[in-house]
Amino acid sequence: MSTTDTLFTRTDPALGTFSIRPLDPFADAELLHGWVTHPKASFWMMQDASLPDVEREYMRIAAHEHHHAFIGLHEGRPAFLMESYDPSELELVGLYDAQPGDVGMHFLVAPSDRPLSGFTRAVITTVMAALFGDAETERVVVEPDVRNKAVHTLNEAVGFVPEREVRKPEKVALLSFCTRARFEAATGITQTAPITEEASI
To answer: What tens digit of pLDDT does each residue of 43-66 get?
Structure first.
């Protein structure tokens, strides 16, 4: 797939068009480096990463069968990073009982000198709508750092329910789940555009 391919698009009533495209580990590395090393991205745990470190990390993800990364756009401009993964194969293996249809998710909003009110919530809503745009997705699983209060609030706003803390090698995480029904109830989004199999999120 080309980085010009649009995999998913959502129009936010207040903030306009959000879309998602494939990530290119080389072409996007410089952009990503600025995002993941920014002070506001401390919970991404790549503060000291060099540009080659970022290239290697996203090359690794691109080559992984169960981990995928995407660039999110707002009005056509790169604005966020999205990752999806199979929690039965990585990140949460052995920490909970994975169910068929579970999808793990990470997202990171790009730093901005002129933040828009409601922007981060619009981003996570777009990410979740994209994931549930795949008919096979039954539940989204997240494991943010227990100290990341801001993301816990965002997660709950789109339907996540915290279950318990789990200890991972790099952090103590708050294991949380969002079913399709909870997402629809929280956001009012009851139908998402289907994603073709070859362009699956």
So the answer is: 888 999 999 999 999 999 999 999
Token pair belonging to 192:
């998402």
Tally Cβ neighbours within 10 Å of residue 175: 19
Cα–Cα distance for residue pair 136/197, rounded to 1 Å: 11
Nearest to 81 by CA among 113, 35, 42, 47: 35
Instruction: Tell me the average confidence (pLDDT) per consecutive run of 10 residues in the chain, 201 residues long.
Output: 80 96 96 95 90 96 96 97 97 95 97 90 97 95 95 96 96 97 93 46 59
Residue 190 confidence (pLDDT): 79
Identify any residues that bridge with 102 across adjacent strands, giving them in sequence order: 139
> Which residues fall within 8 angstroms of residue 180, CB to CB, at 6 or more apart?
132, 137, 138, 139
d(CA 172, CA 156): 18
* Cβ proximity of 88 and 53 under 8 Å: no
DSSP characters for the chain? --TT---EEEEETTTEEEEEEE--TTTTHHHHHHHHTSGGGGGGS-TT--HHHHHHHHHHHHH-TTEEEEEEEETTEEEEEEEEE-TTTSSSTTTS---TTEEEEEEEEPP-SSPPTTHHHHHHHHHHHHHHTSTT--EEEE--BTT-HHHHHHHHHTT-EEEEEEE-SS-EEEEEEEEHHHHHHHH---------GGG--
pTM: 0.92
